[in-house]
Amino acid sequence: MMDAMLAAVVGYLLGSIPFGLVLTRWFGAGDIRAIGSGSIGATNVLRTGRKDLAAATVLLDAGKGVAAVLVAARLFPDCEGIAAVAAVAGHCFPLWLKFKGGKGFATAAGVTLALAWPVFLVGAAIWALAIGLSRISSVASLIAVVAAPVAALLMGLPVVAATLAAVAAIVVVQHRANIGRLLRGEEPRVGGSK
C-alpha cells in the first residue's frame, strides 16, 4: 500500500510539470493559458506559431510519462500502472496551476510507450491515420487513446489494458469541450484558423 501511494505521488509530481507553459514563457511566447483553448499542451503551444516549442512540449510531456513509469518500476515494482495514471492526472490537474492543465494525450502516449511499446506503436499508427484523414488533432487523440486499451487487451495484456482504460477516461474527460465542438462542427483543423 505504501509503495502504491508513493508511486502515485511520484507519478503525479512528474506529470504536473507544465512544460508547455514553462517553454512558452522562457522563450518569450507569452502565457499560453491566455490563447486558444487555454491548455498547456502542445496543440495550444502550436497556436503561438512556434513549431519548435510545440515539438519540444510533445517530447517533454511524453517524457515525463515515460519517467513516471520507469521510476515506479525501479523503486515501486508492480506499481507502474498507478504511476502512469497519476502522471496523466498530474498533467491534466496540476496543483501549481489550480488544477487546470492540459488534455493529457502526450503524457498518455509516454506512459503507453513505457508500459508496452507494441501497444504504443499501434496507437501511434492509429493516430497518424486519424490525423491524416480528419486533420483534427482532438479526433486523432481521442481515437488513439481509446484504441490503446483495446489493443493491449487483444495482445493479452489485461493489466496494461486496465491501466490504459483509466488513462483514456481522464483524456476523454479533458476533451469534453472538444467533443462538444466536434458535435457542432466547430472544431478547428490542424493548420487552419480557430
Give the arrangement of secondary structure elements:
Layout lengths: L1 H14 L3 H8 L15 H5 L4 H25 L4 H13 L12 H11 L1 H18 L2 H18 L3 H17 L1 H9 L10
Helix pairs in contact: 1-4, 1-5, 2-4, 4-5, 4-6, 5-6, 5-9, 6-7, 6-8, 6-9, 7-8, 8-9
Task: Describe, in short, the structure shown.
71% of the residues lie in helices and 0% in strands. It has 194 residues and is an all-alpha fold.
Largest sheet: none
One letter per element, helices H and strands E, the order comes to HHHHHHHHHH
Helix segment tally: 10
Span between N and C termini? Answer: 46 Å
Bin the strand percentage. under 5%
**Residues in helix, %:** over 70%
Gyration radius from CA atoms, angstroms: 16 Å
Number of DSSP E strands: 0
- Global mean pLDDT: 92
> Class by helix and strand content?
mainly alpha
Into how many domains do the coordinates divide? 1
Low-confidence stretches: none
What gross morphology would you assign?
A: globular
